[in-house]
Amino acid sequence: MTEPIHKVPNRRGTRIAHIGIAVRAMDDLLPFYRDILGMPLVPLDDADGATIAGVAAGESLVELLEANSDDSPIGKFVAKRGPGIHHVCFAVDDLDDTLSRCRAAGLRLIDETPRIGAEGKRIAFLHPTATGGVLVELSEY
Ligand code: ZN
Question: Which of 10, 41, 107, 129 is deepest in the core (most CB within 10 A)?
Fold first, then answer.
């Protein structure tokens, strides 16, 4: 049997790219993921005033976010809400198309245009008021 020719090639579908977890200190939580769950470390760049440690969960990541200063986004988040899940990042097939659809739907964006995130990929954040209180990051594959 052959694949139907109308099937769009190279579209992988939206997936969870990573979950961002705010920590007070990296050593509070990194040993749990790395040593107890045995998740491999993935080198990531610092971003948005945070030091970021990545651990691989299959094709997805857990990103531990430690604020470099109290007035950074993660510093403010931890001061207000304590450590915990900060955001969920979805990798999408076409980031620009997806952002256009968000804009057309009237969703509030934090990033009007994509910028480079911790994995060196283009990303954009949506405002949590647009997505049921969950801070959503969109990323290109
Ligand atoms: Zn992220």
Answer: 107
